[in-house]
Structure formats: C-alpha cells, structure tokens
C-alpha cells in the first residue's frame, strides 16, 4: 500500500493568509489569544497552536477554505468547542483551525420522522433547547456541552448510550467537505438503507482526518412519558458492578446506570455542594411509560438489594434530577479540583460486561500502587469506565508515570477483549494503543482509506493513523 | 482520484486451476452443475457462472485462495446460500465462487456478554438452533434462511429490525481477508469503541467488494419473557399505514409490524393454506415483560381501531405464531406462485415514516397503470416496503417494463428523502440508483475506498461501484 506522507510544520504562506483575510475579514484571525484558545483541549497534552483561525458561516465558505488550504498544502484542523480529551484539536503541524461555532443553526426539525438537520457547530444543549416543546429530544450526552460535529467526529456517547446508543447510532446522514473541496452527502433520512458503502459510519469517529462535517441529520427520540432517577450506595465497588452486570444481562432497558467510586462522591460533594453518602454509588435513570418505569425500578432495586445496596434514594422532582445529573456531569471538574493546579490524564477503557468487575478491580490495584489520586467513574452499563489521574502538568516524570498507569489499565482491558477507548477517541494520544488493539494490518488498512480520501495528509494530520 | 480498472472475463489460467485442484481436491469444482448452482440468486438477472467453486474450511484456506486469485488476476465472488436479490453472487467476470457453507461453525457463545463468535457460512436458523437453551437469540431475520456472512455483506434486516436493528447494529467485530491476502480484525467485543475508523461498518453492506468475511462476532438478545402476536385487517392500505405511523411516532417498541396488501394475503392463503381475511393486514409482534407487552398491545389496538382496524386476532400459542410468521416469510414464494413460471423483480424502497402512506399510494397507482401483478408487503415500521413484480423471465419487453416500474417507484422514494434499497443492497442491479441517490461525488469517494483496498478490482467486481 502507498505511504501517507508525514506532515511538516511550515510557516503559513503569506499570499494564503492575505487571501483568507481579504475574504473573511474579522472571521479570520492570527491573533495570539485566538490561536492559544484553539491550540489546546481538555487533555494534558502541551498546547499546539494553529497559525490562524477561520469562522465559516456555510458549506460554500468551508469549501473555499479547504480549497485554499489544499492549494497551499496547509493543514486543516476542525474545532467545535475544544472539549476533546485526546488532543484532537491540537494543530500539531500548524495550519488553519476551522471553528464551526458560527455554523450552529437548526436547519430543519422533522417531528413526524423524529429527526433534525443541523449544522455541526450546534452544541447538544443548544439542540435540545431548540427542540423544547416538540416532545422530542436528542439523547447523546457526553457530559461536556460539546458540539454535534465534534461528537460525531469522536463517536461520542456518554451517560445514556446504554439505552439510546452512541453517535454511531444517532446520526442518519451527513454533508462532508472532502480534502479536494468536493461536497458529498452520505446516508439519508430513511431509517435504514443498504445503498453502498456506509460513508456516514466511516466519517463518524474519523476525528476530522477524512473530511469536514458541514451538516448532520440526527435521530431524535420521544421524550419519555415517565422518568425516574435514584442513587443507591453500595458497601464496595464490586457489589455495585455486580448490580450493573445483572441488570444488563436481564435486558432491563435502563436509560442511565453510572458508577462513582467513593473518591468521586467525595469530590462531587465538595465541588457541587451535595450531601451524597460517601461510598461507592450507582446513579440510575429509568425512562418509559409509568408502568414500565415502575417495573424496571422495582426489578433493579431487588438486584441492588441482593448485592448489598442501600435503599434507593429517589429524585422525584425534575429539579432534583437535574441537580443530580449536573453533579454527575461535573465529575471531571470536581475531580480536577481535588488537586489544585493539576490536569487530568483520563483513561477510557471499555470491556465486555462480564469482565467489568475484574477490570475495575485491577485498575483500582494499579492506582493504589501508583500513589496517584485517580477517581473512577463510568458508564458501566456499556462496560465503559474512566479514571481521572490527577497530574502536575509541569512535572514530566509525573506525566510519564500517569501514562504508564494508563498503559497498564489499557493493557488489561485489551487482554479482556476490550477497547482502549470507549468514547473519547484516539486523537494524538492513543495511536500506539490503536495498533495494539487492532493490529498493524488493520491500521494499515485505515491508512490506505485515509490516503484514498486525503492523499496529501492535510486533514487533521497526526491524528488516529500514524504517518509512517 | 485514480480509476478502478474495468474487470475483464478471461479464461481461468490452467496452472491456477491445477494448483487449486491439487490443494483442495473435492472441495474445488469446475463441474457445470456446481457452477450453475453458484451462478444465479433469487433475482431475475440472467445467470453468470463462475469458472470454479471452492469450499474453504478455515481462514488460512481463504487466504490461500485469495492469494492465488490475486497472483493470477482471477475475480473472487463470495457465496453464502444464494438468496440475494440483486445479483450479488453472479460471477459477471467469471472467476472463483468461494462457497462458505462449510465454514458454518459457532466458535464461541458468550452468554454473559450476549454475543457469539461465528463463521460466516452459518445460517440464521442454524445460529438460533445453536443458541437453544441459552436464553438468547439472534434477531435479524430477512425471511430467507440466509448465511450470516451474506446478511452482513448486504446489510440485511427484515421483520424485526424495527425493534432490534439491522446487521449494522448487530455485528460487533469481524475477521476479514483483504485482496492482498492480509487478515484484519475489525471492531471488538466491547459494546462501544472510539478506536479508529469503523472498519466493521465499512465492511457491512460492502457486498464482498472490499474483502471476504471469515468470522463475525454478533450481538445476541435475551429471549423476551413474554411474546404476543396478532393480525389485524383494515378497510384499505392507507388506514393500515396510518396505524403504523402513529405507532412509531408514539415510540411504542413493537418487535414486528408488517404490512400485507390484499393480493399478498390472497397469495398467502393459497400458498400456505391459511384462512386470513382477504383485505389489507398488519401482522404485529410484541416482546417484553408480561406487563409491558400487555400495555403495548392495548395502545396499538386503540390506534388500529381509530383507523378502522378490525379486532386483533391473537396468535397466543407458540405454534400459531410460528405458522403466522412462516406464512409471512413465504410471501416471496407465495407471490411468485401467483403466476406460474414467473420470476420476481423486487423493489425495496425505504422512506421517512411520514412519507410512507404517500409512497405506497403512489406505488399502487403505478402498479395499476402498469398492468403487472405485483403484491406489496413491507417492514413498514422502518418505512420499508417491497413490491414483487411478477415477470416472464424470457420476455425482455416485460422485464424492461418491470424495471421501468421499479425506476418510477425508486424515483418517488428518492424525491421523498428515501433510499432505493432498505435491505437488499445495490449488487449488480441498482448501480444507477446509487448514483442518483448519493450523487456522483459520493460514489467517486466509494470508488476511491474500493481502489484503496482492492486496487486490481478482483473482489466481486461489477457490484456496488461501477468501474469508472
């Protein structure tokens, strides 16, 4: 197979910058503050600044930018809100950061078909606000108020993927600008299709390395008639995880089932001023008709009780549920707050559900041996959990030890038929894991696909597929 | 982008045939009867015979075959059971038919994780027989007892995709032999992953044009605690379809909801010796806990009654349900039986649910104007329906008129944001529709991907992507 040329950092050609400035005016910037804002995400990786930032308003403008970049061999890095966790938006080889925040319109809501056509810069909260009153909602919820384009690019999921699926399942169609400036439409609004290669699913999770997403058609879901949420404390993590495994194996359609270890609960109480019992906990949410929610809740309570769970503490009012999930969503920041000035090295393994208890137990032993502060939290219904390893970003030795801990946790997950990343993506940080997980031949096949669509390696170079 | 070289039919090189015969003995055949059996599927297209057929027993043997074919530029056409409907297994340029029927083992059943690792030649009935007693089942059910490899290759679905999804949703991982003989593993047993490009979804629906599937890991589902099935007659098709639309829009998790028009019911009564009321009908199935099944059934009955539906006729005993669904599965053969000696030209459009009533009404008008016998049946919960246009295979004028009717039905579906194929695939018959549906640039992108993985165009040439 042909080789993907290694990207090189070059100064931005003067004529290129002048052309884009003339064309985009204030929507093109080379200001230091702007470049810095676009040169780091929520990961612990060092900043890597783009040479310039542009804010397109429509697909035609994106095409103009891409054609100019391709003509001048300038790397192109898409930017949503910068909440990625594996260095996805770092401009490792400089180039242009294409900020989609001003392409954030809802283009159409098809209530009868339960789908919406949106621009990629819209965030999940903006989308759900736009759906207010429609009786529908968009379920994928990675915690951060990420952009939908970014969520599609990393194949994001989050707390209620166990019931509603990930971005893979909830994007029906896309418009994508390819490296040569051509605009393609993938998928369609029909609920299923066997028409050719699944370009939609190829683009989902491709982290901007195959093209720029300029439009998405997403599935919506009916707001559940009834919702109930509860927390339940357990004597130890093992018993909590066993509750999860039995719930999933019984096929109970829980909407959310989240694990928090004692340290995480302590962090939340401190950060979000909650008064949760400081022990391992599961957060639950049930969606459905009143009768089915009651039935699900009762079955899960019985399972929890068999595993030493305390009584369920119900959050019956909508505002109580909101507070509960807001606290859950702030876990990352609550964790970071446990150690002033630190950054998080976040692990993201996901394993078959039968191995989850062993995988978490092993991770806990590794953390204990490492001496790090590293709370554990997870979308355990999918077999996915995170440890947030708190590091001093200015201490290279600490970062190396944290990465060694991450490697240990990943190695164990892979040995259990798991994946190195359930929902954060490969980005810049996990390329070695990608090879370990899928093998060199599969990564070579990925590289061949990349090369077929982006022969000059200009689309977010240095992410997912190593150049070699 | 580079060009995909057009495939050419050449005689099988003598040395190649001798090598394979020496290696595979009786598992390699050039007998006429064998070649004929592998040269046609259930479509109306003329036979196109392979030059030889081979029956591998393991991945290593598939690799040997592929390497020999690549070395001698011999086309490779995978074969499951031959139940495809768009000429997928026709050896348009000769070459080797790789028959997977002797690679049909269950390699592992992971009951706790609800997945199974299987070889591609196993059929869905064989798989479900192997799962007997496990409390689990594999839901995807295209009617025919197709092989799982074939079902993955065409992104098949069928009667209960509305609840359990299509092959896209039910394959977790694959082993694939690429055109250069390399063996890659895609996906994994974790329920979700963001690790690199989604090669699994790229292979699903690729109809053997990108590689040969030698192993699949599929999702299993818990056998529902309660199942109930019913038929309901309607005064006309419109009212039946409106019942479907309202059921889906309310988010009721029906397991199956199938439409049959009057002609189809007549065909079934004649073929399967049933005594169904000869009017438009919906067949329903509900899965869940006893309480949720009762709740679903009651809600749907109310919707049906509001749309003029007669009382539900319940099939309460398992054997009654089996007879009901066996009759539904035999629709294709029952239809063919309406006109002795005919073949079926089967349409397969799928539209957003809000357009389904209009799409079917338009198709009925087209059929009436055409003078053809063409029963309508459909997986209407997904917006997918088929017309089986009965043609005399020896009358080219009739076939052309049937294809014109198909084109009309497809054009209307595309104008309604639908797809030309919900579940049968593009194969040899729908390449023009693929371009109309996705546009030339998207099909060019598909061709670039094909070329990246199969530069010599040896993997099932002439399917999905036209050569130039």
What order do the helices and strands come in, and which of them pair?
Two copies of one chain form a homodimer.
Chain A: H1 14-24, E1 28-29, H2 32-37, E2 52-54, H3 59-72, E3 76-79, E4 96-99, E5 106-110, E6 115-118, H4 124-130, E7 136-137, H5 148-153, H6 161-164, H7 167-170, E8 171-177, E9 183-187, H8 199-203, E10 212-219, E11 221-222, E12 226-233, H9 237-249, E13 256-260, H10 262-272, E14 281-288, H11 290-306, E15 313-315, H12 318-329, H13 331-336, E16 343-346, H14 356-370, E17 376-379, E18 384-391, H15 396-415, H16 431-438, H17 440-453
Parallel strand pairs in A: 2-4, 3-4
Antiparallel strand pairs in A: 1-2, 5-6, 6-10, 7-11, 8-9, 8-10, 12-14, 12-15, 13-14, 13-17, 16-18, 17-18
Helix pairs in contact in A: 9-11, 9-14, 14-15, 16-17
């Amino acid at each position: 197979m042909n080789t993907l040329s290694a990207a090189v950092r070059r100064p931005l050609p003067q004529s290129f910058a002048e052309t884009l400035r003339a064309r985009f005016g204030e929507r093109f910037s080379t200001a230091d503050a702007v470049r810095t804002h676009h040169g780091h995400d929520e990961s612990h990786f060092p900043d890597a600044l783009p040479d310039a930032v542009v804010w397109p308003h429509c697909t035609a403008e994106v095409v103009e930018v891409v054609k100019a970049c391709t003509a001048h061999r300038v790397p192109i890095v898409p930017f949503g809100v910068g909440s990625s966790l594996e260095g996805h938006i770092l401009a490792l080889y400089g180039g242009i950061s294409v900020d989609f925040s001003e392409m954030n319109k809802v283009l159409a809501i098809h209530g009868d078909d339960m789908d919406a056509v949106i621009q990629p810069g819209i965030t999940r909260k903006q989308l759900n606000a736009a759906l207010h009153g429609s009786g529908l909602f968009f379920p994928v919820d990675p915690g951060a108020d990420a952009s939908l384009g970014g969520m599609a690019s990393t194949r994001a999921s989050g707390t209620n993927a166990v019931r509603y699926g990930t971005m893979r399942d909830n994007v029906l169609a896309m418009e994508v600008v390819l490296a040569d400036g051509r605009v393609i439409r993938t998928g369609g609004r029909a609920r299923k299709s066997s028409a050719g290669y699944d370009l939609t699913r190829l683009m989902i999770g491709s982290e901007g390395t195959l093209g720029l997403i300029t439009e998405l058609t997403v599935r919506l879901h009916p707001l559940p008639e009834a919702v109930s949420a509860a927390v339940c404390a357990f004597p130890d993590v093992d018993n909590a995880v066993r509750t999860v495994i039995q719930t999933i194996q019984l096929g109970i359609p829980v909407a959310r089932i989240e694990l928090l270890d004692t340290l995480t609960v302590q962090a939340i109480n401190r950060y979000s001023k909650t008064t949760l019992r400081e022990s391992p906990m599961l957060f639950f949410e049930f969606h459905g008709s009143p009768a089915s929610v009651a039935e699900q809740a009762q079955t899960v309570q019985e399972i929890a009780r068999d595993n030493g769970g305390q009584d369920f503490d119900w959050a019956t009012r909508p505002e109580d549920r909101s507070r509960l999930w807001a606290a859950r969503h702030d876990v990352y920041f609550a964790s970071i707050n446990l150690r002033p000035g630190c950054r998080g090295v976040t692990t993201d393994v996901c394993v078959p559900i039968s191995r989850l208890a062993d995988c978490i137990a092993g991770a806990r032993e590794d953390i204990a041996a490492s001496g790090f502060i590293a709370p554990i939290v997870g979308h355990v219904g999918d077999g996915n959990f995170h440890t947030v390893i708190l590091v001093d970003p200015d201490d290279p030795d600490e970062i190396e030890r944290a990465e060694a801990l991450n490697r240990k946790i990943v190695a164990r997950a892979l040995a259990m038929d798991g994946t190195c990343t359930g929902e954060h993506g490969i980005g810049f940080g996990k390329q070695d894991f990608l090879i370990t997980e899928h093998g060199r031949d599969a990564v070579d096949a990925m590289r061949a696909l990349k090369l077929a669509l982006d022969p000059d390696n200009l689309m977010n170079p240095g992410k997912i597929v190593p150049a070699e």
